[in-house]
Queue: 2 jobs
Job 1
Amino acid sequence: MKTATTLYELAKRLNLSTATVSRALKNHPNIAPATKKRVLELAKELDYEPNAYAVSLRTSSSKELGIIVPSLTGFFYDSFITAVERLCKKEGYSLLIFVSGDSSEAELSSLKVCKQRKVDGIFVSLATNTRDLDYFEKLNAQGIPVIFVDRVPKENIGYKICFEDEKAAKISANYLMDKGKKKILSLFGDNHLSITRQRLKAFTQEFEARGALSNIQVHHALGVQESSEIVKDVLSKSKNYDTIFCMTDEILIGAMKTLQVLGVKIPGDIGVMCMSNGFFPGLYYPEITYVETSGKKLGETALLHMFGILKKEIRENQVKLKSILVEGGSV
């Protein structure tokens, strides 16, 4: 097996000092152009790559960030990671990406790998069954900042970047009431998650405040298949629903699958509204009305916040992104 070319080998073959070779590779102004050219040509020929571990020891920075998300099945986390990666490249950072599969054990294992790799910081969207946050606190105490994104803990630890979940739910509720909807099948996510509880609480409070709490029937769906089955079951028992509200894109996809199989016309037979990253609503006709929760915006905001933390320019521990209504023709 061929061993990696070292800085020392380059210097020996070029009859230069390792310091000169190192400066040439960094395009230092004090190194003559002819010398730079010789160094770069040999480095390319021998496929030289800097030793990342040695660089991290020298600079106290690994130039790596970790990302741990529950899944990559939806467009939301894909767009979040894409946004983070795009901006990382501009700053010379690379990413370690982990999928917890909504398992706290897998999440903890990924955190330990990040620590072993001496990453500069970690983004985490919590697994559904995560209850113990001690390891996150230890990482923060050890100088590895953890930013919770989207699925954030209710406890006051670490840094949090999320959406105005209560505001998004209120916008949705009031929009449906203003449209005169009287019987709404409301599909929310896992009730163990703070994001679900916050959205559901704000949603129901708005209906209650306007004396219309009886207009909604709430069910919880953990994904596409369960959402599809709930809609099928509920509509088989009653045809009186005038709207289906979906808390996530995954829930929307499941609901739409059943509606299409049943041949339900939108919005003629039933209206549909959701909270969404913004991609999936545009795949349907008519386009689905939604309150935006953008993975791209979350990724951009989270990474800029991380860089601010690493440069010790930011001390704010929570940022909430604004939610906006995007009207389609589905309600």
Job 2
Amino acid sequence: MKFPILEDGALLPLVESFYTIQGEGFNTGKAAFFIRLGGCDVGCSWCDAKETWNPSVHPPVPIASIVQEAASYSAKSIVITGGEPLNYPLDKLCSLLKMEGMEIYLETSGSSPLSGVFDWICLSPKKRKPPVEGIHMLASELKVIIETDEDFVWAEENRKKVTSNCLLYLQPEWSRSSEMLPKIIEYVKANPNWNVSLQTHKYMNIP
């Protein structure tokens, strides 16, 4: 599936934007403004944001208005997520955010080439559409979702492609957390280069 280039990134299909607490991975617990873009061509069966998949139902929004809203909050941390945000050119959005002094975090499957400038890149690779070549080396954090035992193998395959400085996280797929979390705990105890990531925002009942 191909997605429209919206005035080279001056307009983007915004699903929602909100101010909350980051719930996953290395930046868990930090206040951040989330920018969720529409459109994803990966299609994970367990995705908890399936409403983002079709970009055509999310009208193009001027990035200037997105940045204006982001700048109205106290925290200077931005999370760009989706959907799959790298389906769009993000250079203009990142440039405007940087002009406001923002620290920008990206959440991506890595299934499209990188655009934009980021302070932190969380790469969460998916088997349905693996990351493009070279993007592993840019990851600050590797976060692999564990749904079945086979996903531990997938995690190790991706670990071999990131840099030695990349932080490693295993996160249970939410609907199978009761079954997979004990296995993740034992795996991390046996392989302490990995860390456990939980979707703490769901426990806190926040976006």
